[in-house]
Amino acid sequence: YDTAALYALRQDEHLWAAACAELAALRQQWFGQGFMKMALGLYQRHLQPLPARHERMLTNSLHLLELLQAASQHHRQPEALLHWFATARLEADGSTGTEIQQLRLESDGKLIRLVTLHGAKGLEYPVVFLPFVSYGRDEGRQRPGIVRYHQRDDFSARHALEPTEQELAYYREEQAAEDIRLLYVGATRGVRRVYLMAAAFTSLRTSPLARCLSAVSWEALQNQVEDMAAAGDCTSLLLDAPGSAPAVAATAAPAAALTPARFTGRIERDWWLSSFSALTRNVRHGGLSTPDRDGAPAPLADPSAPAAGELRFALRRGAEAGNLLHDVLEHLDFQHPDFEQALDQAERRYPNLLLGQSDWRAALTQWMTQQLAAPLPSGARLADLAHHNTLREVEFYFPMQGSDDPDALGRILTRHRKGSEAPLPAPVRLKGMMHGYIDLVYAWENRYYVVDYKSTFLGYRLGDYGAAALAADVQQNVYDLQYLLYTLALHRYLRTRLPDYDPAQHLGGVHYLYLRGLHPQGDTGVYHRAVDLEALAALDAFFQARETSA
Fold first, then answer.
1. pLDDT at res. 299
2. Phi, psi of 444 (to 5 degrees)
3. 3-state SS, residue 160
4. pLDDT tens for residues 500-527?
5. d(CA 498, CA 536)
6. What are the tens digits of pLDDT across the range 427-461?
7. How many CB atoms lie within 10 A of CB 239?
8. Pairwise CA distance, residues 492 & 481, whole Å
């Protein structure tokens, strides 16, 4: 897609829906039939190489697809394969690439190749052009601060900082010898003909060609070449080219006096970006909001803590621990977890968090394995969820056209709590966009669930993460408003994507997984709430009050 096509796509609802449906079908084909089948179909439908470069573009594209297909055997998830491809591109080096990464056509032999003198060593070409053999080094302008040369008695390599005149002379002598060696390499690559192209550069005297012919000026070099041509050793061709193009005087028309246009529009200053954090902490986002994570600062050491214990309880509290666990779960394939790769990334991103934890890799692997095996209220476990039935770190926006009543949102939450007061700080009229990130959305038995991960520390025993403790923590931190917002975002999304969508049938509810208490044996660490259809409808109407009242 070019810019115009993308713009047209965004303006046409039917085209946009068709593009989304095609991407979803391609994703399913990838998981069902493999990367290559999906990629070839995509290529045939959309890639249109330029006619003049069709052969090369077609060959390059198919070669890249073959490399990706081979890599997909080890990186089965799209995100992992994309990460591999991005890394391979960054690490690609034409001078050191493996043979499998290089592909040449029979028609490549007809092309003009630009090759460095170093790269041409050992190769042969029918015709060779050497355009810069009369361009030398500028020895007068800048004196090098460090030089490398060889002693003349034992030929040992030396480095000199702030070199003396003698050391500088050795260094320049070796540079000149290297330049002449490279000239020899280039001049002996041609099978039928070699063109040595010379010009009157200011640095001609130090060029490898002038040194070989002992020419100290452009005239002396010309005389040498003419003598060689007369002897039949070479052919001389002299072209007179102007040193520079004649200067063209630019005459600009006098500029007319400019006056700025006056802005007569109206700027909506009450339109803003909101989020769960903004609603509960009374802040506004100047730009994009960030994922709502467990943001409490790390507390001081707890003197009542056991001297040693499971990592789930020993891991330092605070936002950094929450970020680590979120990151691992976001990128992990639940059915086929690659803990080695996940822990390598964790160690790179959070090196200080795991200091002092003995054998933390084994401990974290054990803990994460237990999290994946813990039963969920839907009847599934995380370990049962295929990657294509999950969405990770789901970003959403939806418009806020809220009621003029600043307390309406608090009343919706109070009714959801069955009468328990739910005051919100400094309530305001909501207008703009609601923005957020859902940690996980998964599909199971034709129902869709919202999942949020919590690294909150509630105690040193699994029993401290029972249903009553979790319910109290949810209300204390107003997480029930958070999951209502997340459910509304999923509800609005499914309403536009599923035929015959029915929230009572398709919405399975929310799970708040308190990771420190999550365990395969028992029902701790899971806070579940079925969908409150009345609260969902009220919240939906609240955020589009202007539309519903029209």
1. 45
2. -150, 120
3. strand
4. 999 999 999 999 999 999 999 888 999 9
5. 18
6. 556 778 889 999 999 999 999 999 999 999 999 99
7. 6
8. 17
pLDDT per position as a tens digit, 27-76: 888 888 888 888 888 887 777 655 555 666 777 788 788 888 888 888 87
Residue 319: band (very low, low, confident or very high) from pLDDT cuts 50, 70, 90: confident
Looking from the CA of 238 toward its CB, the CA atoms found within 13 Å total 10
- pTM of the complete model: 0.54
Q: What is the full DSSP assignment across 441-495?
A: EEEETTEEEEEEEE-----SSGGGGSHHHHHHHHHHTTHHHHHHHHHHHHHHHHH
What is the assigned CATH class of domain 272-297+308-549? alpha beta
**CA dihedral angle for residue 473, residue 475, residue 477, residue 481, rounded to 10 degrees:** 140
Pairwise CA distance, residues 548 & 251, whole Å: 63
CA distance 467 to 336: 30
Distance in angstroms between the alpha carbons of the first and the last residue of the chain: 39
Please count the other Cβ atoms lying within 10 Å of the Cβ belonging to residue 542.
20
User: For 137-142, which contacts have Cβ atoms below 8 Å and span 24 or more sequence positions?
Assistant: 137/172, 137/175, 137/179, 137/203, 137/206, 138/203, 138/206, 139/172, 139/206
Superfamily of segment(s) 113-230: P-loop containing nucleotide triphosphate hydrolases (3.40.50.300)
What residue has token string 């060689």?
A: 228
Averaging pLDDT over each range in 229-233, 259-263, 414-418, 466-470, which range is the top one? 466-470
pLDDT at position 301, please?
Answer: 46
With beta carbons less than 8 A apart as the criterion, state whether 503 and 534 touch.
no
What residues pair up with 340 in beta bridges, in sequence order?
Answer: none
For residues 194 and 187, the answer to whether their CB atoms sit within 8 Å is: yes
Report phi then psi at 118, rounded to 5: -65, -40
Determine the average pLDDT of the residues in 306-316: 74
pLDDT greater than 50 at residue 298: no
d(CA 192, CA 185) in angstroms, rounded, equals 15
Residue by residue, DSSP assigns 394-447 as EEEEEEEE--S-TTHHHHHHHHHTTT-----SS----EEEEEEEEEEEEEETTE
Residue (of 426, 392, 395) closest to 409 by Cα position = 426
Instruction: Give the start-to-end residue ranges of the domains of the chain.
Output: 1-49+58-68, 113-230, 272-297+308-549
Bridge partners (DSSP) listed for residue 396: 436
